[in-house]
Every structure is written in structure tokens, then in C-alpha cells.
## 1
Amino acid sequence: MNILMLCREPRLYSCQRLKEVAEQRGHTMDILDPNRCLLKLSANAPHFAIYYQDSAQASPRLLPQYEAVLPRFGIASTQMGCAVLRHFTAQGAVCLNEDQAFLRARDKWQSLQLLQQAGVAVPSSGLAGCEFSAKQAVAQMDSPTILKTLTGSQGIGVMLAEKAQSAVSILETLKEANVVALLQDFVSEAENADIRCFVVGEAVVASMQRQGQQGEFRANFHRGGLAEKITLTPLQQSIAIQATKALGLDVAGVDLIRSEQGLLVLEVNASPGLELIEKTSGVDIALAMIMQLERKYHHAMKKPC
Ligand SMILES: Nc1ncnc2c1ncn2[C@@H]1O[C@H](COP(=O)(O)OP(=O)(O)O)[C@@H](O)[C@H]1O
Ligand SMILES: [Mg+2]
């Protein structure tokens, strides 16, 4: 296959690993920044053209058609990245993940609604409209309360308000700055740990438990969280797979948290990092992803694998 990875940072471990494995399996892979693309719709063929500018001074070049696309762009590029992904889909490429599923996962509130609708347990959460008073919104939640911006990642945008009054003042400040945030009950019994499940297709291929640093409630690697290998129970595996399906993703990093009410899904990441989880679990996740892309491509072509 002629594969394209959409990513702003080709030197990242995840990108390097995916490229290495794709090439080992006889594919070619280009890595391009979706923000350097120009999408064109025309009445005359080609109806879906994509031009690429390698640098600010370079003349744009028409991109070839790719058979498969891997979206690996960050939150700052979600809109353009998904628009580029849709253009390639219109040209007939298979994608791991598709643009609609990717967009669903990038909106934390929408994801929670879809998970709850699919019967996947999530922490009690709330979203207040801009005319709803912050004080009354916080009063509907338990204290301490977590506040999360809708598109944050790597622990950024996740805040813990120990007291209701702090939650109100944070919410009011965010509102003033035009930043929408959801409210969530703080699961203190998780003791600053969460479980990351890496799902590819219909299976959890790798997992790890992450523990927040001393005094840090966020277990994210980027916030200094430490990881250890963990073997998932069948229940943990089935929740992770159900959550991935609820959002329509092919590849997902599902974060689980242990609570008094049982396991809860915190979020479903559509472009999960490979470095920490490959190194912790010893699993070749890049290989699992490229093989899933091959299966999807063969299925789309109606050819046997
Ligand atoms: N409701 C909660 N209760 C307890 N800890 C939480 C809660 N929500 C998030 N956390 C902690 O904060 C981390 C980051 O939250 P998450 O929703 O996964 O956002 P991000 O997209 O930034 O990773 C989680 O991994 C978890 O350790
Ligand atoms: Mg997370």
C-alpha cells in the first residue's frame, strides 16, 4: 500500500515506529502536515484535489492518491486534519480512524454522551449552557469536582477543585474567557491511577496502569505519571472494546478508572501515543496497527488477506 500519515511531528516515536513497520511490511509511507494542504473541490476532474506546500516559499504540488491514511495529528489540527482525511476518503483511501469517529473522540462531552448511550459507565458529568449560573451548575455535582476543557489532552485542561467555591470561580473564569468546560465528579478512590487500554479493531492489544506523581491527581505520562505493566481482566477488556465501538473507532486508547461503582471510562483517545505503552507492555503495537490497516484495505478491495 501507498500509505500517508497525517502528522505535524514526523520525528515522534509513534510516527517513526509506524513508518518503520509499514516499510518492513513492504508498504511506502509519507508523513505530511495537514496544515500544509490545500483542499480543492471542482466540477471537473479531479473533483477532490489536494495540493501540498513543503515550505512557505515552495510551489504547491498536487498530492498523489494514497490507498490508506493514518490520522495522527494533535488537537490544534483537528478541524483541518479531519477535512484532509475526508478528502482522501472521497478519493477512495481507507483510514484508521475515519474522520467522523475521530471528531467524536476529540469532543470530550460528545464522547461521554455516546458512551453513556451505549451503556458504558462514565463518571457523573455535567455541561452547563452559557446562561446557566456557575453556582447552580456546581451545586448539581459532588464535591470535589473536576473541570475539563472539551478538547484538552495530556492532562492539560483537567482541573481539580477541592471545594465547591473553587469550582464556581474556575467555571466563571473559563466562561469569561470563552472556554467551555464540563464538570465531573472526582473519583478519589482511584488514588491518582488509571488504566490505559490500547484497542486495535476488536481486541485490546496492550495495556498499562499509570500512577500520578506524588500530589498529582492526573496519571498522564506528560504530567509525570509512571507506568507499569498490567494484565486486564475480561471485564476491563470488554469495556475498552465496547467504548471503542461506541465511538466508531478502529484504533483507540481507552482510559479506565476504578471507582466505588465499578470501572468507569474517562475518555477514548483517537490518536493514542505508542511510546510509553510499547515500552511498558513489550507489545509491538505499530505492527498491530499496520496489520489492521492491511485488513481494512483488503476488506475494502474485497480481496482475501
Ligand atoms: N473524574 C475524575 N476523577 C479522578 N481522576 C480523574 C478524573 N478525570 C480525570 N482524572 C485524571 O486526570 C487524567 C487526565 O484526564 P483525561 O480525562 O484522561 O484527560 P486528558 O485527555 O487530558 O488525558 C486521567 O488520566 C486521570 O488520572
Ligand atoms: Mg487521558
Note: The mean pLDDT is 95.
## 2
Amino acid sequence: MVATVGIDLGGSKLLVVRVDDGDVVERELFASAGEDLLVTAKAAIRELWTDDVVAIGAGIAGLVRYPDGVFVWGPHVAGSNIPVRQILEDEFGVPAFVDNDANMAALAELHLGAAVGRQDVLLVTLGTGIGGAVVANGDVYRGSSFAGEWGHMLYQANGLQCDCGKRGCWETVASGPALARLGREFNALNPDGQLAKTLRDANFSAETITSAADAGDETARGLVSQVGAALGQGLCSLIAIFDPELIVVGGGLGSVGESLLGPARRIAADAIHGGSHRPLPPIVVAELGPESGAIGAALLAAQGIQAQLAR
Ligand SMILES: [Zn+2]
């Protein structure tokens, strides 16, 4: 019996789970306090701490050096070059395993979710930006550390400004903020339209649009479909590079499901390299929802500690 705690550190929220032998036995969600992310993280881990916990896993949105667990930088999380692994080990006195949050989510989907039994999988997470992870030969592939940051591959030269400081990244057209921007642009052109009436609050988010789409608003469905098309175009580039057997789409926007993935599949089927001679890999929704990063972190900690004990 191995008990571990997994934590998913995001820019705005922080989720902790305690896992016993692959079963999530406790979970808690916290709002993260900007600059004091690690202070909040330590308090959150302590909430779920029991004496039988043998290791901690932590997933962070951004560039994380693995296995030394240094958070190098990320556009949505404050701070840089933070030795998170060392800090957690000093605080709790057990080994810590720290990695990119999408790698953690991929591990969770591979062992407990949509990718069980698969070997070559891409996880694409859609939220504030696009995150991603590569599973190759049944294991997370990290490159020299930072593989899977395809939210920042060039989608359009001199395109829209990205949070990372560059222009035209894929996530500027396929993410929650991209959908919200399409909504604002549409409403500016059609201030008396139904969508503008539905979205009266000027600070509406992507979620407001996806809810309107779910409620049958045709304009909102059209906007979701535009983002889905941009998703599909980018996926084609990933398929050309990795030739995965399966693509799992997760994250807040990914959970929207068919109204987003349907257009993505259609565009990808049209644009895939050698399309009339090869099948499009299945593009499916992630199964573990917002907990996947924290669950994967706990699983990585369990795997890591078992590998250490086996030595
Ligand atoms: Zn970027």
C-alpha cells in the first residue's frame, strides 16, 4: 500500500489529492494566492497529509526541469527558477517528484483514463492556453525537459499577441481566451444580436459562450466551431510530427466535447498529410477532468518511490 499526495499548481487554482494504490481517497480545491503559490501549496498538502504518505508529486503549468524539479518559467504562474522539489522535500521530509502539469495529466489518462492500454498518445490541454504531453512507447517523453509546449508553435506569422511575448502562437486562436475574444469581436459588430443580449456582462468568459452554445445559441455554436477548426489545423501539424495512435483533448475547454471536437476532426481529416492513404487517429475527450493533473502527480510520486525502493 503506497499513499502519496499529488498537487496541481495552476495560476488561479490549486488542486490536491491523496491517492492510495491508484485510488483517490481525498481531494481538495484551493484558490492560489498569486505570488505566494508555494505557501498556498504547502498549506494545501498539509491539509491532506497523513503519516503514511511516502512521497509528493507536483505538477506546474509551465517549463519544469525534470527530474530536478525546478520550475523555470511559465506565462501563467508567478516566479521563475524556483527549486520546487527541494522546497517540498525540505518541508515534508519525503521524496518529491515535480513535473509539468500536462505530463502529469497524461500519466493519469494513461493509467486510469482515456488512454489506458495505449502506447503512443498526445495529450492536448485547452484552457487559459494550450498545454501538452507526449506519450511515446507507453511513457512520458520529455525531450531534454520541456517537450510538448506546442501551444507556442507558430500558427500565423505576425498573428495575435500571445501571453508568452511572441506573436501568432497556436494558443492565440485555440484556447479559452481565444473563444472569449471571438465573442467580443462578434458582439462589437452585432451589438443588438442575440449573443450580445445573452452575454451582457462585458467580462464574460469562454465558459459563458460554451454554455450559450450548449443551450442551443447558433452564433455561440459557430464561435466554438471556429476554435475547433483552429484546434484541428494545429493537430494536423502534431500528427505529421508524432503520428500518434490516439489524441486526448483535456482542460476546461476540452471538456466542451463534440461541439469543439467535431469541427476539429473534420478540419484535421481534410488537412492531414497523406489523408487519402492513412486514417485520422481518434481525437477523444479526456476522462479524468480537472483532477487529472493532481492524480497524475500522485501516480508519478508512487511510481518514483517504488522505483527507488526497487533499486
Ligand atoms: Zn506563445
Note: The pocket of zinc ion is lined by residues 152, 162, 164, 166, 169 (CB under 6 Å).
